[in-house]
Amino acid sequence: MKNKKILIADDDLNIIASLKYMLSEENFDILAMTTPEAVLENLKRESVDLVLIDMNFQQDTTSGSEGLQLVEAIQQFDESLPIIVMTGWATIDIAVDAMRAGAKDFIQKPWNNERMLSAINTQLKLVSIDKKLNRLNQENKLLRSQSFPESTGIIAQSLAMKTLLSSLEELAQSDMSILLTGDNGTGKSMLAAYVHQRSSRADNSFVPVNMGAIPESLFESEMFGHLKGAFTDAKENRVGRFEMAEQGTLFLDELANIPMAQQAKLLRVLEDQKFEVVGSSKSLNADVRIISATNCDLAKAISEQQFRQDLFYRLNTIQLRVPSLRERIEDIEPLANHFLQSFSGKYNIVAPELSLEAIDKLQQYTWPGNIRELSHLMEKLLFTCKKTTIGGRDLLLENIHHSASELDEDSDDKLANNSSLSLDEIEKLSLINRLKHHRGNATETAKSLGLSRSGFYRRMSKYGLD
């Protein structure tokens, strides 16, 4: 745990020496200044956790006016920074004025060590609680705005998944960066959460971010946060994803969709382990574990100068491929039953059973949408199948399989002329077709369809392909 940093300001060097000795013994890091100007100049460059200042400096030894002006200036600079004031000329009026100006506590000289330490620790705890509440509020907003699976109940009866989970169990004990590759819908986000929950960072936040869904103009604000007034629409302070994930795990999904200009900014943070909030010149520590995921061929993207090789090396400490659903046949039946029971509880509907014929058809299907497609199918069957047992025909996989087999570069017209398909099914299969044509590159696929990246991802999410 990093030591808390306290800035002391007093024009008496003996006072500074005494405070330094006492506070260093309590494992605080100390910065010492002798003038208000030095305090403000230092706060522009360095982050501190608390300010302890005298109310009277050399120009004025009794009224406390210099101290009050300094408190107000610090408040304008950073209103969340706790300030404790001290003076040898203590009066009720000075104490009240200091608290009104923004000070959090008032200490009279000569001080009592226990009282001083109690005041400092109390303010540091209050700031920590406020930061956690603010972070949790913003995390809750983030989680409400996106659908994100939990990592509980991972089903792994197939050898491929058992091998992968065994590797992830071992890697969870380290802090190394992990790159998960594989098709869309294979559960990469769930596996990232699985690693976090088994790591030493499990008590802190797991923060997922879909890199393809962040507008380029808002990249720094989303990732690093911003201060109120930093730009036109900055109505309030915003906590960025790196700060949310402090001492936890940051999951970068759809990694290949980060624009080149923003890749350099991300690389700098990962190399320096520091970042600046937009609107601030102070550096904050980035103590986060990075797990990233992509369905893109990053080697190809690097050769085409669409992805930075140095960023790839930074994120690719170890790379693991998540198998597609068609590569884990043994997991299809238990996954299907899991989804049926899960949706049964959600909607309070008795779940039908899968017949042997239905299981056989599920295991023969190619599952281009992988686990998400299976989940959506089971949810739909809960409402469309009115029998106690789901038969092979109830799955309606014949038409889908037939259409999927025709997915080539000229298949759009065939899909449109297939009278057995709904408009949604045509759109979904067209998306799959175009993604295959562009080898999973979401940016190129969106361009070819005339869609913005956000519009493309909304459609992907609609059909469980995101």
Features:
3 domains; Rossmann fold; alpha/beta; 466 residues; single chain
In short:
Residues 154-383 form the Sigma-54 factor interaction domain. By secondary structure, the chain is of the alpha/beta class. Helices cover 48% and strands 12% of the residues.
- Strand arrangement across the biggest beta sheet: 2-1-3-4-5
Q: Architecture of the largest domain in CATH?
A: 3-Layer(aba) Sandwich
CATH class label of the largest domain: Alpha Beta
Number of domains: 3
Strand content: 5-15%
Distance between the termini: 38 Å
**Remind me, CATH topology of the largest domain?**
Rossmann fold
CATH superfamily grouping of the largest domain: P-loop containing nucleotide triphosphate hydrolases
What is the number of helices?
20
Q: Count every beta strand, where a strand is a DSSP E run of 2 or more residues.
A: 14
Average pLDDT number:
86
The largest β sheet comes out as: 5 strands, parallel
Low-pLDDT regions: 144-149, 401-410
**Fraction of helical residues:** 40-55%
- Pairing-aware structural class of the strands and helices? alpha/beta
What general outline do the C-alpha atoms trace?
A: elongated
How many whole angstroms does the radius of gyration measure?
Answer: 29 Å
Pfam family, one: Response_reg
Modified residues (4-aspartylphosphate): 54
Domain Sigma-54 factor interaction: 154-383
Organism: Colwellia hornerae
